[in-house]
Amino acid sequence: MTSDHGDRRPSHDDLAAGLRGYLQQVADLVGANHRAGATEPRGRDLADVEVAEGDADSAARASLPLPQRLSWFPERPLSLGWDEEHGWSAQLEADHGHHSLPVSYLGVDALPTPRVVAWFLKDLLAGGDPGSPYPPAMRDRGQRDDLAERLVAYATHSDR
Q: Which of 80, 139, 78, 79 has the alpha carbon at shortest distance from 108?
């Protein structure tokens, strides 16, 4: 499927299916529920997102709640968060599910393979320090790159 712009960019439906497929693969590898917290691009192609300062609702992002907890914060629920600007991060619930506090960013790619994400979590849960506490600048929202095409490639793995 292509967008209504008459070009070969993936459509919103293609991107949403790709995001679902990607999350499903990551969730399967880390033991998370992939249906729990995904948010899709809101009516826009990932490659087309141009966001005003502070408008976080327009970026593609997801959160995968995890059954595991970090040994140094056993009282806080843990999740994996993903967004198109920073890639993956491990996050602790800050206040009853309304806000999350990133504790480590993977920082290797905005869309690493699901196995790399699983390695990141495994190392973190084992007490390692696999990432960075600072958000990496992987890409800018709306940047013209291959992220959309790479994401769409996961659509075949989606349960749509």
A: 139
Please work out, in degrees rounded to the nearest 5, the angle formed at the alpha carbon of residue 79 by the alpha carbons of 66 and 126: 75
Give Cβ neighbours of residue 13 (< 8 Å, ≥ 6 apart).
1
The string of DSSP letters for 65-114 reads E-S---TTSTTS-EEEEEETTTEEEEEEE-STTS-EEEEEE--S-SS--H
DSSP state of 11: P
**pLDDT per position as a tens digit, 62-118:** 889 999 999 999 999 999 999 888 999 999 988 766 688 999 999 989 999 999 999
Residue 7 gets the label, from left (phi > 0), alpha (psi -120 to 50) or beta, of beta
Among 100, 92, 113, CA closest to 30: 113
Alpha carbon distance 40, 148 (integer Å): 13
Give the Cα separation of 93 and 61 in Å (integer): 16
Phi, psi of 26 (to 5 degrees): -65, -50
Exposure of 133 by Cβ count < 10 A (0-12 exposed, 13-18 middle, 19+ buried)? Answer: exposed
pTM: 0.78
